[in-house]
Sequence to fold (275 residues):
Amino acid sequence: MKKIFPNDPVEKRIGYQALFDFEDAFEAIEFGIKYGFTCVELNQTNPSFFPENYSAIQRKRIRDYEFPILLHAPEGLSLFNLHKKALNGTLKRLCEIINFGTDINAKTVTLHLGSTFLISVDGKMIYIHEIIPQQYETTLKYALIELAEYSKDRVPVCIENTAGFRYEISHKVLEELLDTQNLWLTWDIAHTNRIEDKGKVLEEKFFLKYLNKVKEVHLHDNHGGWDEHGIPGTGTVDFNHYFEILKEVNPYFIIEVRPKERAIKSLEAIKKLLF
Fold:
């Protein structure tokens, strides 16, 4: 049997992301157990997984499964907001999700940094953060430090490589904070696969530099164009290349395809690659 991770029971850390296929967390956990997954990530975009829908008793029920849970913060929230009251509202919601994760013994909370917006200047469309970079850099740094401080002794917060993650100001802030703050990374390798050659090299270099900060990896496939979220093996992602890199760390691997039937097929494909 081939073993890319010879000294590490990676098969105990392969899960899937539950989004709109489930009515509650319990159904998502039961699905994972039934089909041989060993963890599940609950995407908080689905109201069925909102923290306010789970009482203290229900949170204990989730813990009692002793089935590893990861959380994904809602899509659409952004840390690039110069309006302090609005930004603090976003941070408050993320802290509620961190609390939920702590109550259910979640392994991670993954979040997107969000994005800014385009504005017309002299007949060209330019992202607003490129016009006033210092203000957005300061805002992002403030937001990440707040989350890092709040998550201490709670569930780790992981930043995913998508959207505003690739802004120059984002890399500047992350490189300043990752070495000193309680912040971590989720590496979506299919997102890296979509970048042009030079950009791909730079993103891989970033993750190699902070490999010890990678707590979670998202697995899906594409052909380098759009974000297809295909079954592994149906696109151009070089999974063996990334698995060779990731054998140095101990992340959770989350299959991110939809609907749930495709997650079952994806698990079979990933096992063939790993074992």
Q: What stands out?
A: The first strand starts at residue 14 and ends at 18. The two ends are 6 Å apart (CA to CA). Residues 2 and 272 are 9 Å apart (CA to CA). Residues 84-103 form the longest helix (20 residues).
